[in-house]
Amino acid sequence: METVHDSRINVAQEGGFVVRLILQGTGASEVLSQDASLVGDIYYELNFLDFDIPVDIQIPPECATPEDTSDLGFPIPEDATNIVQLGGLISFSTGMGVLEAGEFYKTEMAAAGCTGVDESGGAEGLILTFSGCPDGNAQIAIVPEGGGSNVSIIPLP
Questions:
Q1: Residue 146 in contact with residue 134, Cβ under 8 Å?
Q2: Please, are residues 70 and 111 in contact by the beta-carbon 8 Å criterion?
Q3: Reduced to 3 states, what is the DSSP secondary structure of residue 99?
């Protein structure tokens, strides 16, 4: 960090150990930006928590994986996990390989009424762009992930 604008350190009254450290400033962090010449605002915060106490972390209901995927507007494989919907973008993992997931979407999107598909890539990564869809066109990116793949669905205007 080249310049520190603000810093705070909180120390526990009992034990004298650091419970919070905050540094704000301007500088470069190659670790964070992958570019040693990139200079900008930097904010570091370190918090100490008592890890001997059990913590129950719950996903907020609005962020939970939907149980019913029929309202997402696009076909989703039955084995889909880690389903995330941000705005119109939908992302999830599936046990299907890239090409198998591609075939799933070519079949399902045609059944949904899409009349055209442009395809680029292969087993290392596949992009399918569907057009002529009655409920809206879409681009589907499929990339390998573990033993399956990760699928991102982007609605198109």
A1: no
A2: no
A3: helix
Q: Where are the beta strands (DSSP E) in the chain?
A: 3-11, 18-28, 39-47, 81-86, 89-94, 116-122, 125-131, 137-145, 148-156
Are the beta carbons of 39 and 2 closer than 8 angstroms? yes
- All structural domains of the chain with their residue ranges: 3-47, 64-156
Q: Give tens-digit pLDDT for 11-27.
A: 888 777 788 889 899 98
Provide the token pair at 149.
Answer: 């793949």
Residues contacting 144, CB < 8 A, separation 6+: 97, 98, 123, 124, 125, 150
**pTM of the shown model:** 0.58
> Distance between alpha carbon 88 and the CA centroid of its chain, in Å?
13
Of residues 106, 136, 108, the one with CA closest to residue 119: 106
- Digit-coded pLDDT (tens) for 55-78: 666 666 666 555 556 667 789 999
